[in-house]
Amino acid sequence: MESTAEGGTILNTILFEAAHGTFSASNVTVLIIIILILLLLTGITAGSETAYFSLTAKDINYLKTKEESGARQVIRLLDQPKVLLATILVANNFINIAIVISTNLLVNSLLPADIGALWSFLIQVVVVTFLLVLFGEVLPKVYATQNNMRMALFCAPVLKIMLRIFMPVSKMLVSSTSYIEGRLGVKSINNLSSEDFEHAIELTVGHSATREEVNIFKGILKFSNITVKQIMRTRMDVSGILYEMSYRQVQQFCIEVGYSRLPVYKESLDKIAGMIHTKDLLPYIDQEDFDWHALVRPAYFVHEGKLIEDLLHEFQQKRIHFAVVVDEFGGTSGIVTLEDIMEEIIGEIKDEFDEEDLHYKRIDDNNFIFEGKTLINDLSRIIGEQPDVFDAVRGESDSLGGLILEISGKFPAVNETISYENYDFTVLEIEKLRIKRVKLSINPPTEKAD
């Protein structure tokens, strides 16, 4: 209470002296300190506007993987972008008005009493314009453009306080804007769905490009939003070499699985010791007792939430084709290869070692038999649906078996049918509490309506 009263006394003294045209040295110092604080605040608000609204989806996904309080504050602020923008603009205007008033008082106290009113006005305009443009626009926005992530984290605590102070005004502005947009029928570009973009691709290049080329365009469109978890080969399907195996056992295992790169683990797949290239074994193929551990290379680990666009760039820089995928607890989730990434653009790549019907069998246009481990993205592509067709019910699952568990809410029995919209999933085989095979039947919309 005493500090508040003291601050009020200082402000009253400054206003009284301003009214009478006299300023003490201490009050001039207080005014300068106030102006400096206000310039810092206007720089923060101006820089935060540039920083927050220049963050890409890749930057936001990176922040979501961080546990720091600053990163969480940034994500919470971006959950309401319109309210955030309104708060920044309102706060910036209030601060600029305060700077104009404070600078006016300071300039009047420092100028001689006999100076003309016109010269006093021009000097104040020049000083205020210079301060606001330099510290309120140019410097913070240039810095935020080059360091948007750092600026967003730095501004988060200040914006959180401003959001609480100006929340009523901000919400009123957002509501007014939404009402005006509704009356004028304004449609935001952000409301365009992926289907709209794909339709635009069909209209622009569909008449001159083949179906494969159109699919490549669509793959490029979705490429920047796909995570490693969506395309990786899951842990259940990973073939690895046990570190304690003999050289002959390793040779036999490599022949059986037929892969060019294999992870090497100790005890379990959660303890990856490295990886081995089968081509490295060729010079020693005739040796009986060779220490193959000398050929083990360091493994490259990536988080399952990493965007494949970034992973592709890292693969190119490091000249590698293979990575071990880990979850948030450091356990092995699966593996991802360069081929898996490229298939998201150009479609499935088949080589002489791939089995044509390994994961599914097409009975007719509306009936398929899939393995339970089939990824939901692959399933959608095979049946000709959008990748997000099951997003409303898939939860955290990535495979068909997990999707069925999410829909049913329990572990199904053999020959039990689980339905979702016009899709019927019939469990054909269960092995060790794992859904092994599933029959998918697609009911035409007319039948469902009947």
Features:
about 450 residues; disordered N terminus; elongated; CBS-domain; 4-stranded mixed β-sheet; alpha+beta
How are the secondary structure elements laid out?
Blueprint lengths: L1 H19 L4 H28 L4 H8 L4 H10 L2 H30 L6 H30 L1 H37 L9 H12 L5 H13 L4 H4 L1 E2 L6 E2 L4 H11 L3 E6 L1 E10 L23 E3 L4 H11 L3 E5 L5 E6 H9 L13 E5 L2 E5 L4 H8 L7 H4 L5 H9 L8 E4 L2 E8 L4 E8 L2 H5 L1
Parallel strand pairs: 2-3, 5-6
Antiparallel strand pairs: 1-7, 3-4, 6-7, 8-9, 9-12, 10-11, 11-12
Helix pairs in contact: 2-5, 2-6, 2-7, 4-7, 5-6, 5-7, 6-7, 8-9
Provide a descriptive summary of the structure in words.
The chain is α+β, with helices and mostly antiparallel strands. It has four domains: 183 residues, no CATH class; 30 residues, no CATH class; 119 residues, CBS-domain (Roll), CATH 3.10.580; 90 residues, Uridine Diphospho-n-acetylenolpyruvylglucosamine Reductase, domain 3. It contains 17 helices and twelve strands. It has a five-stranded antiparallel sheet. It has a four-stranded mixed sheet with strand order 1-7-6-5. It has a three-stranded mixed sheet with strand order 2-3-4. α12 links the parallel β5 and β6. α5 runs antiparallel to α6 and α8 packs antiparallel against α9. The longest helix is centred in the middle third of the chain and has 37 residues. The N terminus is likely disordered.
Helix content: 55-70%
Strand order of the largest sheet: 8-9-12-11-10
Biggest sheet statistics: 5 strands, antiparallel
Distance between the termini: 74 Å
Radius of gyration: 32 Å
The shape is elongated
Q: What is the strand tally?
A: 12
Task: List unreliable stretches of 5+ residues.
Answer: 1-8, 14-21
Structural class assignment: alpha+beta
Into which percentage range does the β-strand content fall? Answer: 5-15%
Average pLDDT value?
79
Structurally, the number of domains stands at 4
The number of helical runs is: 17
The topology string of helices and strands comes to HHHHHHHHHHEEHEEEHEEHEEHHHEEEH
